[in-house]
Each structure stands twice: as structure tokens, then as C-alpha cells.
From TrEMBL:
EC number from the UniProt entry: 1.2.4.4
UniProt protein name: 3-methyl-2-oxobutanoate dehydrogenase (2-methylpropanoyl-transferring)
Cofactors, names only: thiamine diphosphate
Record carries keyword Isomerase: no
Amino acid sequence: MELDTQLQVSEEILLKAFNHMMLAKAMADIYEENRQITKYVHSTSRGHEAIQLAAAYQLTKDDWVSPYYRDESLLMGIGFEPYRLMLQLLAKADDPFSGGRSYYSHPSSREEDKPKIIHQSSATGMQAIPTTGVAQGIKYLQEFKLQEFDNNPVVVCSMGDNSVTEGEVSEAFQFAALHQLPVIFLVQDNEWGISATKEEARTSDAYDYAAGFVGLNRMRVDGTDFVDSFTAMKKAVDFVRTERKPMLVCAKTVLIGHHTSGVRREFYRDEADLEKHRAKDPGNLLRARLLDDGIDEDLLKQIEKKARLEAEQAFQKAIAAEGPKPETVEEFVFAPTPITEETGTRVPAEATEKIVMVDAAIHAIQEIMWKHPEALLYGQDVGERIGGVFRETVTLGAKFGNKRVFNTAIQEAYIIGSTVGMSAVGLKPIVEVQFADYIYPGINQLITEISKSSYLSRGKFPVSNIIRVPTGAYGGGGPYHSGSVESILANIKGIKIAYPSNAADFKGLLKAAYYDPNPVVMLEHKGLYWSKVPGTEDAKTIEPAEDYILAFGKGNVILEADKTETEKGRTLVIVTYGMGVYWAKEAAKSFEGRVEIIDLRTLIPLDEELVFESVKRHGKCIVLTEEQLQNSFAEAIAHRISRNCFRYLDLPVETMGALNLPAVPINLVLEKEMLPNAEKLAAKIGEMFRS
């Protein structure tokens, strides 16, 4: 898409832009002059001011924008004054974005009179997927008439040029183009990626690269020229607002400041390069244009002087502002959940027939989607044709249509990361990763964006999603369809993890996950889906009523030891979850009355109270997992048990899991040798009783 002739931009807008540019210059100069005070790493917008302000001036309160860490001019352009930005620069308590937890120009905002801003990380290019998720969500809201807007919302995702080389950016481009989403990818190209030049880092600029994404419109613009930039951004925003199609704007800019305060320009740039960039300083270019247009030079000098004074006053005020109190450090990890107790009917009086776990999932999601139009389901192969590779969403596509239940490409990062944006606009995405072994491409989004969003936005943007993950080994699934991933997930702070072992728990936990405003991973052992594995018949249960909800953090004693045996010191407790429940139940048959079994049901939060009480009562404990044992979640639990129950233990806390191999072998004999089972567990129990 080519630019027509420049717009006739009003003198009022030109002077407004000049004032903002002078503020940006003054702020950068003040930060540089006070390096002992501005001690936290920061970037400034010097050289990028024109395109950022041009973009900002187009946006309304119904729009969404994701600035990146060099976008302070964009933030000023949408209404954030220097003082509020400086509160974040200096990590003060009243930092409006993160309360002193994140870097400068890392915003998050729900302020009613401004475009909305989701939390985003510093990780290069990672904002592309969550922000495209916002556009995906807006399209859904409008298609189903769930929200009315004064203006058709436009979503702007701002990025640097080298971020386009990230694979996750490609996933965002692909999804936006395929689904024709109302998003603008604003790529600010200053030809540097820290110390890497464009020649070292990429074969083309973003404009040429985007040509391969059919359906993604694109334009180039001189991002140092304010009028050119204003013309381009008005055209881009008007196009997306009207046509509801995606656009990429490649804006050529310059880097006048440092990459960051920690990676200074003199470390990697010579004087010739600096002079080339300074020659295109947007402030100087706009000044020259204003003088050519007849604006009095004294007025411009007065604006510059006033901007410096305003920035200085704001800086001194920010220095004097209070810092965050130490006791607030643990706030906002999770948003409060309304689901704190088990409610509803677990075993309806009239019910007689048991259902498998797969049906529990289908029925729970179906009940949710009938009741809540904001719920939708997507992932690989979950659509109407097969309803998931385990048939765990079969019938849902036919019942709810392909705009509420749909297939995605093989894009685990997009599947997971897009839930950030979907949640931000008020939707509840239920997404699926096909096998646990394939969650790794999405781990970046899960850790970098999702898990930190509530904490770093001070609770403004908890990510409310459900990520379904079939997990576990059985029947020769082999090295890429049998993995267990709970230890990796449990090490991520800011997400919740459920691991049901039967149909009733599954349905109740899935309902709780839906009403929880936080990110939830549902680990679903595929060997329990249909109860096809010998000994797992009890995974089938009577189906709970529609109103049944099982709160997270509530473990379950599924087998009690005989009190008389316990009083004699002849019992132990097995703490487990998932398939481990069935190994434990089978092994316990050899030790009648002497084994108690706790099914954790959720790993985060963990019912430590139940576990510790039981261990103190029995004095002996095995923590059983299907995972490879070394450095596992099970070993971490065992340590916590040992620390909290030390005075009550008769023996060291034991752990049992799979052999420490890098993958599950496909051969059934080797698979069996690697994994725990009831026979191996019974031998371990016998050893402990003989000790």
C-alpha cells in the first residue's frame, strides 16, 4: 500500500508534536545527566519520536496498543505525562504500571480515557502474539455482539526491526493474516539490534519480509518525518478501523540515544554512524519544517525551554516520591478467585451410569459454553472433523460452530500466548496443546508473558485461561507422545496446575478453572481418558451435576489406613496424583489396612495441610510420580514434607518415579522398565515396613 501525498497537518498538531519531541529530548538528557539516580536500566525514544507520536495521535479510548520498551513518546502521545513515566523509571510505589516492579516504558493500563495496554515483557518480539490475541478477541466480541464500541477498535503492536526475526512474530503475522484481524504491526526500523547491524541480522526489512504473509497489508514510511508518519498512520488506522484487516507499517527511524542505559552507544557505534543518525533527528526535522511554514523561531525556543523545565520539575517530583513498601512484594501473584470450596452435587441421586474422563471434559466444556458466550475453544485438531486426537472435544464443534470451536495451525506459542489478549478483552479461552511433549514451543509465552502478567501489572491483567495438556505414558506412545511435564510447569510462578485422576474430579476442577481469573494448566493423563489401561476402571465415575465445582488446593484421601494399625506405627501414606493413584491403589492391596493414599488433585495450589497432617499421623511417606525422579516436583514435595514433619518421621521421606532417562522409549518392554508401576511400588512399601 503506497502513501498518497502528505496530509495537510494542522499547525496545532505540529506544535503539539514538537512539544512532545522536546519533552522526550529533555527527559533523555536529564536521565543521562543523572546516571547515579537513574540507576535502573532504561531506553528512550530518541530518534523514534515522530512515528510514535504519529501513531499515538490516531488512537481512541476504544483502541489497544502495545508499546515496546523504547516507546515513551508513544506513551506521552496517548496521555501519560512525564512525571508518571518517571515514577516507573525510578521504580516508585506510585508507578502507574507496575508499582516499581518493571522497567521504564513497560506499561499496562486500563485507564478509561486512554487506549488500553496489556502487560508485556522485555523479551524481543514476544508482544506480537498476545497483542494479536487482543485483535482476535475484539473480532470475536464484535461477531457475537458481546460488546458495543463508539469506534471500531484498532490494535497496534509496536516492535523493533530485529524482533521480526523471532519465530513467534511470524506466528502472529500468520494468524492475523489468515483470520483478517484488526491489528497494525508497527515496526520501527533503526537498523540496529543492540550491537548487531541489519546486515548481520536479517536478509530484508519488515516490509519485504511481510510480503510472504498473504492477506497482511503493508506500507513503508520515513519514521523520522512527522508529517509523513502522521499521514501513514492515519491511513493505516483508518484502513484497519474500516476494513477490519491487518496492516504492517515499516517505519525507518534512527537511534540517537543508547540501546539502553546499560548498553551505551559508545560501546559499539563509531562517530560516523552516530552522525548519520543525528542528521535525521525528528525534532530537528520538524523544527525546520515549522520554520519553513512561518512559525516564529522564538516560539519554538520557548517550547523547548518550557519542555526542559517541565521535565526537570517532573524528575525532581519523581525523585521525592515514595518507594514501594517491602511488605507489598508478594501482592498480585494471583487474582483472588471466587472458588474456594467444593460446591454443588458430586453424585446426583438419580445417576447410575459412570462416565469416562473424556466425556467429563466434553460435558463440562459444553455446559460452560452454553452458559457463557465469552467461552471459546481452540487448538490443533480440536475442530468439528475429529474433535481432538483423543476425541476429547468431539461434538463441540458441531454444537457451537467454527467461530467458537476451531482448529489452529501448528503454533503452540500462538495457541498459548494469544490467551493473554483474549483474556484482556473479557473472553475466556480454553485452548489445547496436543501432547505434553509439544508444550515447549509455548513455554516462552507461558513464562514470559502469562505467568508474570498479574504480578507486573499489579493485578490489572491476570490472564484468565485454561490450557489443556494431555500428558503421560502408556501403550508404546514413544518419546514424543508420552512425556510428563509437571516439574517444568510447577517451577513457573504465577500459574495454577490441576492434575485430575478421575472423571468427577476432572469435571469439577475444569469448572473451577473456568471461574478462576488466573491462568490454569489442566494436565490430563491420556491413559486415564478412556480407562483402557488395566487397573484404571475407577477413573470412571458417576457424572457430577452441572453445578458441581471442585476448588483448587483440596487434596483427597482416597484410601484410609486402619486406625489400629496406625496406632501401632505400622502404616504409611502415599502422596501422588494422576496415574500414580492407580499404582498406589493396586500396591496397597498387598498391605491391607496399612496404606493411606492422598490424591493431590491440584499441584498448584498444593494441599500441604492435608499432606502434613497425614504424614505426621503415619510417620512414613512415599511421594509417587510418573515423572523422571531426579530434580522433580515429587522431590521438591518430599523436601517440604521432611522440613515440616521432621519430628514426626520414623524414616526418611521416600520418592518414587521413572528412571532418569531423557525420553520414554517406544518399545513396550523398555517403557515398562522405565516407568513406576504397582509391583515396583509394593516392593518399595515392603522395604519401608521392614526398616
